[in-house]
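User: I'll paste a sequence; please echo it back and then give the predicted structure.

Assistant: Echoing your sequence first, then the prediction.
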Amino acid sequence: MHSKQMEGAQNKIISADEHPHLIKAQGMARLIKAGLNSYRAICWLCKHEAAFRQEILLLAILLPVPLLLDLSLGGRLAMIISLLLIPLVEILNTAIEAVVDRIGPQFHPLSGLAKDLGSAAVLLSMLIASLVWGLSLYDYWA
């Protein structure tokens, strides 16, 4: 495309008549579509991301523990939320990696930094969960 053609293509207003798939769903249809998109993303993560599978396994094993212990509601919630934080941050880390990989295969220091920051966020979520669980279990047994 020549530069004049590109200018025109960039400034063209897209109408819903020409592209009906671009109309955003509203109300319950939007919620259903969002749910299906989330389901598809979680299926993709389970198939392609070993770290996510490991974190879901950890969640499945540890989730009953706060429910079985005689803890306050706040203690139980803190333990459960700290566990859920780990796969949540892993999803965000994977999204960052996908965007960086989409930009291109060439190495760039900022691309490496973005991936490292995502990884650091996952590590921090694990440290938070470990701290919450350690303090909760210490209080339980003390």
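The chain is about 80% helix and 0% strand. The longest helix spans residues 109-141.
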